[in-house]
Amino acid sequence: MFHENMKCHMHAAEIDGANVHAMDKASAGRTSPELSAANFARVLGHPLRISVVRLLANRGSMSFTSLMEALHVSQGLLGNHLARLLDGGVIACQKSGRISWYSVPDARIAEAVENLFGAAGAAPMKPAGPPSGMCFARRCTDHVGGLLGVRLLDWLIRNHVIALDGNDYRVIGAAGRFEPLLGDVMHIGPTSKKIAVGCLDTTEGRDHLGGVLGARLLSGLRDLGWAEEIPGSRTLILTCRGVRQLSDLNVIDASEFPQQDFGDGVDAATEGAHDGQ
Ligand SMILES: [Zn+2]
């Protein structure tokens, strides 16, 4: 089951799975479930490869770049380990345009990896945890990218503020409950910038919002104290107030954000804990 050889990556330089091939050859004609299981364990036998599988299992699918950013590893190192995982059929890869999307092809693989932690007596993975990091929200030039960016765009479409018009979006109604973030969208003065354009999100594989409205969303989130950018990174973190407000607006679900843990050192818990609801 884990023998599928799928390679569509462009970055993987070398495959350090030579011994797996040798083993396959040596035991040709004598495949056994034990051999398959041993090969599977061998392919997984590196902390970084385990991290990759867990990350992909949690996120669904990710591009090479987003994996590199999330794991803080070099292109070469990640490429080698991805090649090993692909070669062992533990992860799969699908090309869409110029981007390769990596994923875990079988839920049993993710389950097996999680079970390894229990069997090893290692601390279990933090259950789901609040959405965070570059994949959740990041600054993309002057607007919001990541899952949050995609959800903000969805909200504006769902609430008839903007609509797709050719390759861009056009304003079709007032910002309504988004006015604190966007201001008056019906009377935007002359600008050399497009009002609302889609920007392909590398981690979501869909558009988030750029243009004048995209930039207003980002500055609105910051000015209202709903989001902060981690210094030296493009990662955006929601403050407690931001979680509450965006949850009230049905952009996100506050239950995804446990009160205690906002991660990454932003002093959000303190900010929101004392100002009542
Ligand atoms: Zn963008």
Automatic annotation (TrEMBL):
Listed SMART domains: HTH_ARSR
Entries under Pfam families matching the protein: HTH_5
GO molecular function, one term: DNA-binding transcription factor activity
Sequence ranges assigned to domain HTH arsR-type in this UniProt record: 29-124
CDD domains: HTH_ARSR
Assigned keywords, A-Z: DNA-binding, Transcription, Transcription regulation
Keyword DNA-binding attached: yes
The UniProt record lists the keyword NAD: no
Stated name of the protein: HTH arsR-type domain-containing protein
Species name: Bifidobacterium callitrichidarum
Upper lineage: Bacteria, Bacillati, Actinomycetota, Actinomycetes, Bifidobacteriales
